[in-house]
Structure formats: C-alpha cells, structure tokens
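Next comes one such specimen:
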Amino acid sequence: MRKLLLSFLLLQIIIFSAIGSTTSNEYRQLYDDMQLNGIVNYNAFEQALIGYNQIDSRKKNIITIIDFTKPSIEERLYVLDIENRKLLFKSHVSHGKNSGENYATSFSNKAGSNQSSLGFFVTDNIYYGKNGYSLVLHGLEEGINDLAKQRAVVIHGAAYANPAFIASNRRLGRSFGCPALPEALAKPIINTIKDGSVLFIYANDKNYSKKSHFLNKNS
C-alpha cells in the first residue's frame, strides 16, 4: 500500500512538472513569435503572462508591461496584443517621485507616498481630469496595489514624460505615483488598453515576488 501511494505521488510530481515545463515553453515560443528579444525583458514577460492567464476579469487579449528594471531614459512600457502576437506600442513612462531618480527602486501602496506600485491591474474607464485624458486603474493585489483608485493612480499624458525632458534633466520627469506617458502617445495607448485589459508593473522585486498571489498560486 505504501509503495502504491509513493508511486502515485511520484506520478503526480512528474505530471505537474511536465505541465509547468510545457507552459514555460509556450511562453518562450510566444515571446519568440512576437520577436521581443532585445526589446522586452523575458522575466517580465513570463511573469506578466502567468498573471494574465489567471485574471478572469480581463475583457481584452491585450497586456501592458512596464519594466522598472530599466531607467526612465529608456522606453520601458510595452503594449502587447497576445491574440495577434503583435507589439502595438513601446514608450517612455514615468515613475513616482519618491520611487527613485532615474531608476524606480522603492514602491508603495500607501496614500501620500508618491511612489509607484507594482503588480497586476485591470484597466477601467477613461475620464477628463486635471491631467486631461486619463485612464482609471483597478489594482488586483491586496496590500500591493489595491489602493490605486483611492490614491488616484491613473494613466495620463504629461509634458514631464516627453522624451525631450531627458535632454536637460538626464532623466524623465516623475509623477505622484502615476505611470504618466508622453503627451503624443497617451491618447492612442489609453484608447487601446482601456476597458478591461491587463497592466503588469515589474521591477524584479523580491518582496513583491514573495507576496504576489498570482506568482505564488501553485507554489
């Protein structure tokens, strides 16, 4: 009986290992098909897809990845059409002024922190506010980004997010926590990702990786 039980457990381990390997291979194939090598960090891409495939509330086969391992002087926002395997946009994007200078290294979910939040969001409606055409974000991770609406963390355009700002400041301008976009790209990107697409903000942050239920669901 004990041998049968051990054999059954071993079989389950082999099956789950094979499933995990297959999924990882599928992500790599998708990454290669979309020709993202040298553009999008693969670790950010894989984590984004892991969460994307768990989010039942998404209404679009589009995911936006913001990679805060890159400096603000580089394009680090990517809008990906998963269904059609296309890179739709890449852009500069700001981080919160208390998250760091050229690099974002500190993150918070607290009101008044003026820091960026990591993790998975679903986009909501658009509105016209003090920053013009803006997109509401719904944070999906408790204690990590679920206060995004309360903090008014939204996607909007801003002059300080224009690449021209870098020439005289050696970094992009910073926000109060919003992922602000160059003014010329803000509206087309917002119109593409509004109403139910997934946004993933990545930073290779060990604290986030431990806390995120999306990344630890099967661990």
Helices lie at 2-33, 42-52, 164-169, 183-193, 206-211.
